[in-house]
Amino acid sequence: MLRTLVRDPVLAGFKDLGPGVPTENSDLSQFFDARERWPECMSIPQINDISECKSSWAFAAAESMSDRLCINSGGMIDTILSAQELLTCCTGVLSCGEGCGGGNAFKAWQYWQKHGLPTGGSYESQFGCKPYSIAPCGKTIGNVTYPACTNTTLPTPSCEKKCRAGYPVDIDNDRHYGVSVDQLPNNQIEIQSDVMLNGPIETTFEVYDDFLQYTTGIYVHLSGNKLGHLSVRILGWGMWQGVPYWLLANSWGKEWGENGTFRVLRGVNECGIEANCVSGMPKLG
């Protein structure tokens, strides 16, 4: 069951979190939200919908890369990089995994560094060179009602070597590259410092039955079986009634959670949230 955690017995002894946990006297801000810090970047507040494809690893990567490209260019390169490219084309030596069956976040960032990513937004937006090709399901967006979800994982789309029809730029001239990729240590202060300086990062955590019940509040795993893993973006952090949390962006649509975002207990590596962070820096020239 999901509950508001401040009254939960799991927090008994919560103040004894040990070294590495920022205190109220820390140099790091007690509250941070990348959406407020860099309002000029259109990618940061964006919430995507992966539909019936386990492509969160690709979306969290491409979203974070887009955020960092905008932030580190001072807002001069404000675009959306293609999760579709990672999902469908990260194969061979740098194989990211199984596409819609799940993938490896670190390999996705390495692909960005070696091959670059063209632009590409959501299915609904049809933005850029290679937008997402999988439609949402079971919802109405604007005037469009999408078919019901089938609760089955869709096959991975094929890798296209060119931009969509009508896009005016050649794919190789549309690519943006990374210059570095980092697997961050399981250290809250280092994670916060990286996000505060350079922008959102990708993290992957364990998903249990009770996470599917999340609607609002600060999540902590209390019960249920492990279902797999989910990759998301760390947008920031905060405190609620003395309880520290991470602010994260999911890719299950804006209807889910807190307008597509959620909060997780911070400072105790809840469900591995702090042990699997990946970041990198964009090439600007």
Automatic annotation (TrEMBL):
Molecular function via GO: cysteine-type peptidase activity
Chaperone found in the keyword field: no
Pfam families: Peptidase_C1
Domain annotation Peptidase C1A papain C-terminal: ranges: 28-281
Record's keyword terms, sorted: Disulfide bond, Hydrolase, Protease, Signal, Thiol protease, Zymogen
Family label: Belongs to the peptidase C1 family.
Protein name as annotated: Pept_C1 domain-containing protein
Organism this protein belongs to: Caenorhabditis tropicalis
